[in-house]
Every structure is written in C-alpha cells, then in structure tokens.
Design a protein that fits this description.
The chain is mostly helical. It is built from 1 helix and no strands. The chain starts with a helix and ends with a helix.
Length: 54
Amino acid sequence: MKKSLTIIIFLLMTIIASGCSGTWKGVKEDTSKGAEWSKDKVNDGAKYIEKKTD
C-alpha cells in the first residue's frame, strides 16, 4: 500500500514538473516576442509623430 502510494505521488510530481517546464518555455518565448513587438510599435509611433511634426 505504501509503495503504491509513493509511486503514484512520484508520477504526479513528474507530470506536474513536465507541465510547468513546458509552460515556462512558452511564457519566455511569448515575453521575448512581446518585447520586440512593443519596440516595433513604439518606433512606428515615433516615426509617425516625426513625419507629422516636420
């Protein structure tokens, strides 16, 4: 009984750990893409303002 409970807990921990690492990887990719997207939008806005003020 105790051995089977230990195996079940180990399997659950493995599943949780693998799910979290996959999610963390996705978060890191989305964050880096979001930063690049924001930089592009800020630059586009600055160019638009520069054209309108010249």
